[in-house]
Design a protein that fits this description.
The complex is a heterodimer. Chain A is an alpha/beta fold. Chain A contains eleven helices and twelve strands. In chain A, the strands form two sheets. Chain A has a six-stranded parallel sheet, with helices on both faces. Chain A has a six-stranded mixed sheet with strand order 7-6-8-9-10-12, sandwiched between helices. In chain A, helix 4 links the parallel strand 3 (99-103) and strand 4 (124-127). Chain A starts with a helix and ends with a helix. Classes of the chains: A alpha/beta, B alpha+beta.
Chain lengths: 329, 499
Amino acid sequence: MKRPLKYAIYYLVVFIFIVFNVVLLDNLKYEEPVEEEIKPKLVLISHVYSNPYWQQVRLGAEKAAGERGVIIDFQGPESASVEEGIRLIKMAYAARVSGIIAYVQDETQYNDVIDRVIEGGIPLVIVDSDAENSKRLAYVGTDNVEAGRVGGREVIRQIGTEGKVAIIMGGKSVKNQMERVEGFRNYIAANSNIVIAAVESSDSYLLEAELAAKKILNQHPDVKALFCTSALDGLGAAKAVISLGLVGKVKIICFDDLPETLDNIEKGIITSTVVQQPYMMGYKAVNIIMDNIEGKTTKGLFITDVLVVDKENLDEFRKKQREYYDESE
Amino acid sequence: MSSEKSNGNIMMKASSLRNRFIIFAVIIILPIATSNVVSLIMSNRISNIYNIMMDKMSITNEIKNNLNQSFSHFNQYILTHAEESKGLYSLHYDKVVEDIIALQQDSDIKSQYILRDLLNSLKSFKEAADRTIKVYDDRLGVDGYYDEYVWAKEIVSYCNDFISMLNDSYFDYNVSIYEGLRQKQDYINRVLMAYIAIALMLSAIYTLLFIGNITGKLKELVSASEKVVKGDFTYHEGERTYIYELDILSEAFRKMITHISKYIESLQEKAELERRLQDEKMKLLSYENALKISQLKILQAQINPHFLFNTLNCISQTAFKENARNTESLIRAVAGILRYSLSMMDRNATLEEELNVVKQYMYIQKIRYEDRFEFNLRVDIDPKKVVVPAMTLQPFVENAFIHGIEPKEEGGVINIEITEQGDLCTILIEDTGCGMDEDMLKEIMSDSPELRPMGHTTGLGIRSVVQRLKLMYGRDDIFSIESQKGFGTRVYLKFPVKE
């Protein structure tokens, strides 16, 4: 072996060893966890924790929280529960959080606890469904009567001023559902000759919605459109229309923007949907609380608009939604 | 190549076996040591995390116990109004707060939020409980403190919720750290595997090369030794191994072989020299031997030369008194020859002395044969400076008489010519006698006593004379003879002129 080659090999071996040792030592370095400053906390209590609608509320709230220097503790029962909702509010109150954003499922049961929280000096804002007789600082959400009116206007736009329609609602005693139906009825009565042939409730269950839709279509084959006031009602109605082979013949006008709903609009099974702005609700609610904490008294109703999404503006709507998610990442 | 320089070379470039083994050990030991240290550190960390988690969870458990103790003493107080319970309620509460504050110092952010909630909830509990106790102490009745009592109880349940959340949070946090570490450990393990594999491979290659080097060199040395055993001292130093000890060994072996072969050469030279010396001695011995033989022959031939010599002197004086001049001269010549041959037998004489003897001999023959022959002598050299063995010329002249002139009726001529050609002195003895055939020549050259020609003065044959000359001068071309039947004989003697 020639000497230079031999030396080269020696150096190579030494180099390899050094590289290995450096890699190993580098991996041994202890990574100090990033010291995060502990911030004031707002609790956001949702209707149902995993509901995509509420996830959008959360995104909006977190966006605002990031801007205002607080954090959001997103909570909620796994399935809708008044008891659990109240318990979460009480818990947040006991823990003296900086603010509470809550959903009120049943106004009468919530009023006491809401008043106690406000008296305890913790700002509380209600989103999505109001308890107007409580001492809550503000309500941020859809005017459900107005949303019903928008739905009525959309139905007239789709079928004209004559004919029969049917309503599927997500619970006959649920306040926002009732308000939507009310707004719808009022608008139809004032602006057309449309007859409401039937009103069925699904209690916000998919299977029940489908069955209700089938029942209506069987009993009233001349129904031109189905107006569905909750998110899952629209999907149930869509399934019924598909299985009865009435796609395109019966229009479905529904609520909210579940991904499946949007897919069905794209396929032409659902005609259009009345969409609330949960992201805006979360965003706005946090800002109201922060304004109050910082001394600017902000109270009252903060109505977020509803949009009608149909095939024409579907892409635009999806794009905007994607932006919200991208921001949060 | 000087040995010092070559040693320096080897030292500079080659590493000793010890260094080789150190390198080998480092190649093997370093990765293993590193991997052990790294594994140790990693497992240490994992067990640390586990310990921290267990510590925190046990503190959390303590918090839970103290909280429930506090609450139960609070309950007890409301039930029994025992001051002791009130104190214990406070004491346990303080312990909980203390523990929480201690935990807050050293927790991840998520746990810190929960701890803050828990601490605030505890404070709420304390407030509610204190209010309850105050109302209870004021004995305002159960209606006054019932709501506060229920609220305090609720808060305790929330606190328990927070505590279990805290437990989960600690667990999650440490599990995530553990997961991170485990992934890191996996990665490190893979690196270590590669490291050790490469190290093993390198050491294997190193070992193979090293062993190859050693065995190659050893084989070379062994074959060289075998050659040496067979007497072949050619040793080709092969490639350098760059192993200090082996190179030194091979170098030493090479030197040893060189030295041995040189020693053997010198021994051979010496033996050759001795052999030559021996040859010289042998020559000398045979020369002396020849001399001895001639002396012996002379002694055999003459009965008491001294008596003869004295008698001749007496006769010569008597002839002088009787005035017989010729007789006197004759006797004097005979006595001269006799004296010369007696005294000069074992030493060298000058050519002049030789010529004197020849002249005396010729004088005697002249008187005897009168005009039957003619004698001519021509000398072109200073006869004093040429040294020859005594009695060299006379036998040839006598031979010319006996075999050339005597048998021939009409007689003849005897010529002696002495010439010098460079270093060589040439003596030509020529007769115009009857000449000789092959057999005669042989007969003359033989020295056997039976065939010895009759009538020689000294009894020395031609052969002995020639041999003596040859031995003296160490040459074979001293004597040559040419003869033709009926025309005569020529004898040439050539020898170097010795100063």
